Amino acid sequence: MTVPHRPARLVARVRRAETLWCLCAAAVLLGGCGTVRIGIGPNANPCYRAVAAAADALHHKGHLTGVKPTDTASLLQALRQLSDHEPVPSALTGRREAVCVVSYTGEFFPAKVRAPWQLRRAPADLAAVVVRTRDARPLATILTSRSAARRARIAVLSP
Asked: What are the tens digits of pLDDT across the range 56-91?
């Protein structure tokens, strides 16, 4: 009686398993070369460069809470809802321009941000940096409280 040669069968199974494993590993590695998020980049969103400019205007303080594209006319209307008696930042008046409003939370003081526009004298817990999309230049930094922005229902400023 002959006993089948089991080591040969075992070797064949191991080789098939190794081959299958190598093919799977190659598929995973080659699949990682393409990206699902092809649309993310400097050309995909006009506010892409505004985040860096806003962080620089705040000297890299606070926590990023949102980025919203808008224009200066819509923003001025929202700011007038927030405060009727305060003059709006002069950099926002003039012709209608595309801007990005980059919101940060934290504790902000007018002396420590670029181009401040403050509605109250106490330290603000919301900073909204208005950045012109054409050249990523910060036009104004709106300092207010989160509760005031919510009360005025200003979606542009609220995180």
From this structure: 999 999 999 989 899 998 888 888 777 766 777 788
